C-alpha cells in the first residue's frame, strides 16, 4: 500500500506479538492486577511476588 512502511505476511503480526509476550509477559490492565493481588491476600499466598 502506498505510504505504508511495511507489508506483513499472513500470521506475521501474531507471531511478533507472541515473541513480545514470550519475552515480556502478557500485559494486564490495572484492575486485573489489583484483583490478583487481592485474591492472593485472601488466599494467604505469601510465596508469590508479582512484578506489578
Note poorly predicted spans: none
Can you write the helix and strand succession as a string? HH
Anisotropy-based shape: elongated
Strand content: under 5%
Number of strands: 0
With helices defined by DSSP (H or I, 4 residues minimum), what is the helix count? 2
How does the major sheet shape up? none
Question: Can you give me a brief rundown of this structure?
Answer:
The protein contains two helices and no strands.
Descriptive overview:
This protein is an all-alpha fold. It has a domain at 28-52. Helix content is 50%, strand content 0%. It has two helices and no strands. It has helices at 12-24, 30-42. The longest helix has 13 residues, at 12-24. 0% of the residues are buried. The mean pLDDT is 93.
Question: Keywords, please?
Answer:
52 residues; mainly alpha; 2 helices; elongated
Topology:
Elements: H1 12-24, H2 30-42
